[in-house]
Amino acid sequence: MNTASSPRSRQAPPPDGDSPYAARRKIHPREVTGSFQTLRRIMLIAVLGAFYTLCWVPWGGRQIILWDLPARRFHILWMTFYPQDFIYVAILLVLAAVTLLFFTALAGRLWCGYTCPQTLWTEMFLWIERRIEGDRPQRIKLDKSPWTREKILRRGGKHVIWIAVGLWTGITFVGYFTPIRELLTELVQFRLGPWEAFWVFFYGFATYGNAGFLREQVCMYMCPYARFQSAMFDRDSLIISYDEQRGEPRGSRRRESDARSAGLGDCIDCTMCVQVCPTGIDIRKGLQYECIGCAACIDVCDQVMDRMGYPRGLVRYTTQNALEGKPTHILRPRVIIYATILLVAGGLTAYSILTRPGLSMDVLRDRNVLYRTLDDGRIENSYMLKINNRTEMQHSYRLEARGADGIEVHSDPALITLPPGAIQPIPARVQIPSSSIDGAMDIELMLSTVDAPDAPVIREQARFLGPKQAENR
Is 205:297 a contact under the CB 8 Å cutoff? Predict the structure, then answer.
């Protein structure tokens, strides 16, 4: 093989700025206002507000959300889940993935721009930084200035607040697993357990590092979504794009000048869209995986267009087909399929969760002995029942059986009492007269709640083994 003529050998070496090993260029995004940024701030307040406050909301003597790992109980609103309800977690994760596919196919990286925790905490840390160090020009100037008393105070104050926010975030996170009031009491009294202490400081440090220092690096290099998002886009997906036909050729000009007679497009090359971008990209270069869909470039470009007296929308949410003058199809097969899956599977899952019984019973047959013949001629099978009281109250239960004439069931104890959330194995014996048996047969075990007659009766099928009638004779 002639390597000298191969495509790889003919490629010129990349410039230093494009090297994957180039030093990180610190990004100072400029603050911007606008309709999309207002929506992002509303989402920030809603999501982070819920995170920081829900663990403080009482509900029936406990927190409204509490994942009690030692007790293996997971409380959400009025519902309590147990390890055997893990199937719901798997279903919800699948639905979350389908939801991500749906919104990405519909309107690009809405998750990244408006609800991703990394984006929201980064915005909060940036807000703190702007309040202390100033907007973009002041922060750049402060970076280049020598260390003075003012610079030390500003930088030090910023990091003190960042660390405080990170630690409070870690405390809040652990507060969903250990009751938050107990956690604070232990923290103040220096009695925090090793695992609680580890996760408080680990999560706090992760928040401080990711939102304060790594920022766009997480979105560009650590998050896998940035890498495979292109597989979920198509030419009808809404994306943030620069209208090249309208904007080019770009160039600066006076506000009162006639751009058309000068052969210029609407873009005045002010680079404001680059200055407000939290990942530092130039949207005018086309769709890039680094774009998180925050729409800051749309808001700032619209403001520039207003000042110049040009129509808005030079940078806007649009589709590749629309930019090429082709019709856009919002309702297309993949969107319809994703929406159908979400509606059907989500509805069935919600119905299953809301109507799930407060009692469950698993029946395990004793495999060591096929059956026993009692002195009075009856045939007996032994079972082990695993009964789970999923409610938050103590209840008493009675076991019954049907499926054959003269069938009887005996449990130990006869009246089964379980505390809230308990899972208890109960041995049970089912006895049937030999005259009612002809080999293996199906029976039904029923568990009813004695102190709550309106509660549904749990029914489980079981296999009963016995001799055939020919053997009996």
Answer: no
How does pLDDT run across 396-420, given as a tens digit for each residue? 999 999 999 999 999 988 899 998 8
- Start and end residues for every CATH 2.60.40.10 domain found in the chain: 359-472
Pair of tokens at residue 5: 């003529």
CA distance 380 to 82: 33
What does each C-alpha distance from 176 to 40, 46, 423 come to in angstroms?
25, 18, 23
Strand residue runs (E) in 191-300: 239-242
Fold of 359-472: Immunoglobulin-like (2.60.40)
Among 147, 129, 153, CA closest to 139: 129
> What's the pLDDT tens digit per position in 76-104?
988 888 887 889 999 999 999 999 999 99
**What one-character-per-residue DSSP string does 322-362 give?**
HHTTPPP-SS-HHHHHHHHHHHHHHHHHHHHHHH--SEEEE
Measured between alpha carbons, how far is 462 from 445 in angstroms, rounded to an integer?
A: 7
